[in-house]
Amino acid sequence: MATKASRAAARLMISPSVLLLLGWMIVPLSMTLYFSFLRYNLIMPGDNPFVGWENYYWFFTDPSFKDAMINTLLLVGGVLLITVIGGTLFALLLDQPMWGQGIIRIMVIAPFFVMPTVSGLVWKNMFMNPVNGIFGHLASSLGLQPLDFFSQIPLLSIILIVSWQWLPFATLILLTALQSLDQEQLEAAEMDGASWASRFWYIMLPHLARAITVVILIQTIFLLSIFAEILVTTNGGPGTATTNLTYLIYVSSLLQYDVGMGSAGGVIAIILANIVAIFLMRMIGKNLDA
Amino acid sequence: MARAVTPSRKAFTTVVAGLLGLMMFFPVLWIFILSFKSEGDAIKAPMEILFNTGWTTESYGAVQERSDYFKHFWNSVIISVGSTVLGLAVAIPAAWAMAFVPGKRTKDVLMWMLSTKMLPPVGVLVPIYLIFRDLGLLDSRVGLVFVLMMINLPIIIWMLYTYFREIPGEILEAARMDGASLRNEVIYVLTPMAVPGMASTMLLNVILAWNEAFWTLNLTAANAAPLTAFIASYSSPEGLFYAKLSAASVMAIAPILIMGWFSQKQLVRGLTFGAVK
């Protein structure tokens, strides 16, 4: 059905998108790569000499880099653990027959639509503040010492906030996957006397495995870039306790004006994200029957 | 099919799920309540706030007065709607061509477009910042519209593509057999079937752009700051601010919450790239 003329037209219709995305990718990426090999600081005028791997060397030997990598891993891992387990439980629950399912689902999903700066500040002040926050009031009314979240368990506090934001996403995806499960298979297993646990373990979980993988991959990509929640709550502190890789790069490039160092960090962040992206792209590719 | 369940079990599930739902929703509910309290009342113990304090709308007025709230609200509207409309203008032809005139390399092109979405923003923060500085685009709405359009373009193209592909080719052939010209085919057959998909795509991407908080925080200052960046200014407040923060937050998330409720399905489609069905 596609003629030569329509192919030419199609190419013409696709080209603006391709050119824009190509430019958006290649121009900044090659600049980042180039800057990462320069000694280039915005507050130190003069030429920017080529220094080879020096920025990478400083970046890797900087103790805050090690902290940032560990924090990034803990943040991503912690949020994944909470959202995948919680999301699976929520999805199983929401899949049961109940009254007011629509309303309940809306309430569960709502946090996903709250902008990151609002969730960061609301949790920090209205809930986790040791004096005026709800948790603080609750602890004092029980006669306990209120927990100062952001100085005693700073990273865990951030993990909790981000988990609240992403739990709806995991729930929604897993619920969608669960609803495509063949009910007759479940009924047959039930009639053959399979317990709920074995139905879950042998039928539901294998069916969910793919969706869980997708949730993990997509969330990892987004979670590697967590920024606003840290900026409005702790500014990466105390010390470097809540500085992740994204925040560290922001500090070196926009607060310390060290373009070379920030770029070296940027290259590292890109490599990290790409490792995850390769797996994700493979899964998407398999499902795409174009 | 739905299995028969005893009413008592159904009631039990409803209560458990309802409580969990309430827990997840509680922070949103709580700032809604606090936004109608005075600053002095807003820091009291929760039970006291619920049962022992009056209601007032003064915080909403105070937020506008203190910091010109509606300027930032408008920035958010312009940036999110602008970037989405621009993105649609670029993406519709591309998605259309890939869906209706697929070639050998269509799949590769589509996959490559998606892969650009995997690029971490912080990896290109420095160059974008410097380019914007040199072009005078820092703290400008034009610059942000462009950046957010580029960020969401892969998602827009992808979503449109999946919607367009659901339009059955037989209908087009039937229209052609009945003697419809290409122009009529596009106007009377394709467009009506494509509009719902375009609307859903637009909805989800306005939401994503509205809540985007990396570029908006790093590329704006006082002038072009949308609500994400404006709310961030409450991280170093003066004096009591819980009620004002609540009022500002409620106004910032209310439109998106309402839109979000309509776009639950599109969320799955738009953010999993078809990997979950």
UniProtKB/TrEMBL annotation, chain A:
Residues 69-280 form the ABC transmembrane type-1 domain. InterPro entries: MetI-like (IPR000515), MetI-like_sf (IPR035906). The keyword Membrane applies. Its main location: membrane. The chain crosses the membrane at residues 12-37, 68-94, 106-123, 153-175, 208-228, 259-281. It comes from the Bacteria. Pfam families: BPD_transp_1 (PF00528). Belongs to the binding-protein-dependent transport system permease family. Keywords: Cell membrane, Membrane, Transmembrane, Transmembrane helix, Transport. It is found in: Cell membrane. GO terms for cellular component: plasma membrane. One of its GO terms (biological process) is transmembrane transport. It comes from Marinibacterium profundimaris. It is a multi-pass membrane protein. The keyword Transport applies. This is Sugar ABC transporter permease. Gene3D superfamilies: MetI-like.
UniProtKB/TrEMBL annotation, chain B:
Pfam families: BPD_transp_1. It is found in: Cell membrane. InterPro entries: BP-dep_ABC_trans_perm, MetI-like, MetI-like_sf. It is a multi-pass membrane protein. GO terms for biological process: transmembrane transport. It comes from the Bacteria. GO terms for cellular component: plasma membrane. Coiled coil: none annotated. Its main location: membrane. Keywords: Cell membrane, Membrane, Transmembrane, Transmembrane helix, Transport. Gene3D superfamilies: MetI-like. The chain crosses the membrane at residues 12-33, 73-97, 109-132, 144-164, 185-208, 214-234, 241-262. Residues 73-263 form the ABC transmembrane type-1 domain. Belongs to the binding-protein-dependent transport system permease family. This is Mannitol ABC transporter permease.
